[in-house]
Automatic annotation (TrEMBL):
NCBIfam families: efflux_Bcr_CflA. It comes from the Bacteria. It comes from Marinobacter fuscus. Belongs to the major facilitator superfamily. Bcr/CmlA family. This is Bcr/CflA family efflux transporter. It is a multi-pass membrane protein. GO terms for biological process: xenobiotic detoxification by transmembrane export across the plasma membrane.
Length: 403
């Protein structure tokens, strides 16, 4: 299978998460009205989904190492689709949040399988390029998601958004069954009893360089999650934009992600992925410094939009470089390492976004300052990252931990 074909199929799969995350953002006001709750209360359904999406990966990753990527991925798709249908029928916000938690569990099993499959096939700079291509393809989903949501709202109501998500999960199952798994290199399942499972997670936790990249992923993703959680408030309530305008501005973030992702691929032939990661984390932080200043001085909408797009767009280069480096040391425990990365990313970012709904109030400043604080932490970790990750030894092979 060519890298493009593999990236296309895996990109379609990993796009399931962004679709479930972003498609119903334009519907927040309608959901709040239906259940007679605030936008912040509706935001809890997003935080609950993201947190579960992270925690459940701790289970899904080792299971995929033991029982194979295909079984765990298909279980995830099934659970995700069933939960999406139930969300569409939820009679209260508490019911909606509960089914979103189950949907997050299904999404976690899907999410953790994709980087593990990549690590099964390639490593090093090649993995970074493949992650970049996957990211480029999957950017279509978050770019289109709010527009799809707005279209569903125009045709009916917000319930149809989740019916659409269920249909996409079913479509993925059919495509992966016939186009992906028959063409992958087979890998023998690993035996992971409880003792070995704990040991494997300890191997990842004790690897200082890997955990540094996990920290970068958590903080950069938290920056983006803070924006996503409050996007409806920022654009629709604070600035009073329509659903269509909100969808266009949200898609602009993804557009810059795609551009930076495209630029990152040829740069990987001249620079190490660690160096590129460091530069893009710093650029994201500078964009957020600009955003805080604009908000502090009550700047215009276009300036706020410009800095948000610049900051969020940097994820297009940060994610593929960081994921390749974080998984580099564990070629035979790709599921476990991916689970640690994904669980940390989604759980901690989900917690940060949930907490932000309690202190943000009716002001932009707490939101943008929180985004900047996360970005500063990521810069500090990135500045200390080794310049040549691929040369370091892997703990999975029983060698000393990286400094």
């Amino acid at each position: 299978m060519s890298h493009f074909q593999l990236a296309l199929l895996l990109g379609m799969t990993v796009a399931l998460g962004p679709l479930a995350l972003d498609a119903y953002l334009p519907a927040f006001p309608e959901i709040a009205s239906d259940y007679d709750v605030s936008l912040a209360d509706v935001g809890l359904s997003l935080s609950a989904y993201v947190a579960t999406l992270g925690l459940a990966q701790l289970v899904g990753g080792p299971l995929s190492d033991r029982y194979g990527r295909k079984l765990i991925l298909f279980i995830g798709l099934t659970v995700f689709a069933v939960a999406a249908v139930m969300v569409a029928q939820a009679g209260s916000l508490s019911d909606l949040v509960g089914w979103r938690v189950l949907q997050g569990m299904g999404g976690a099993f899907c999410a953790v399988s994709v980087p593990a499959i990549v690590r099964d096939q390639v490593g090093g700079q090649e993995a970074a390029r493949l992650f970049g291509l996957i990211g480029l393809i999957m950017f279509i989903a978050p770019a289109a998601a709010p527009s799809l949501g707005a279209l569903m709202l125009a045709m009916g109501d917000w319930h149809w958004i989740f019916v659409l998500l269920a249909g996409y999960a079913f479509f993925l199952a059919v495509v992966l069954q016939f186009a992906l798994f028959p063409r992958l290199k087979p890998r023998p399942p690993a035996v992971t009893p409880v003792k070995t499972l704990v040991t494997n997670y300890l191997l990842v936790l004790r690897h200082k360089t890997t955990m540094r990249f996990v920290g970068i992923q958590v903080l950069c993703f938290s920056t983006m999650m803070l924006f996503i959680t409050h996007a409806s408030f920022i654009y629709q309530e604070w600035f009073g934009l329509s659903n269509s305008a909100f969808s266009i501005l949200f898609a602009a973030n993804i557009g810059l992600m795609a551009v930076l992702n495209l630029i990152n691929r040829p740069l990987l032939r001249r620079f190490s992925s660690v160096v590129l990661l460091r530069v893009q984390v710093i650029l994201q932080c500078l964009a957020l410094v600009g955003l805080v200043l604009v908000v502090f001085f009550h700047g215009p909408l276009w300036a706020v939009v410009a800095f948000i797009i610049a900051a969020v767009g940097c994820q297009g280069g940060i994610v593929p470089n960081n994921m390749a480096n974080a998984l580099e040391f564990f070629p035979h425990l790709g599921g476990t390492a991916a689970a640690m990365l994904g669980a940390s990313q989604f759980t901690l970012a989900g917690t940060v976004s949930a907490l932000s709904t309690t202190f943000a109030g009716d002001s932009l400043m707490p939101i943008v300052v929180s985004m900047l604080a996360c970005s500063v932490g990521a810069v500090l970790l990135a500045l200390g990252a080794p310049a040549a990750v691929a040369r370091e030894k892997s703990l999975e092979q029983g060698e000393p931990a990286a400094a």
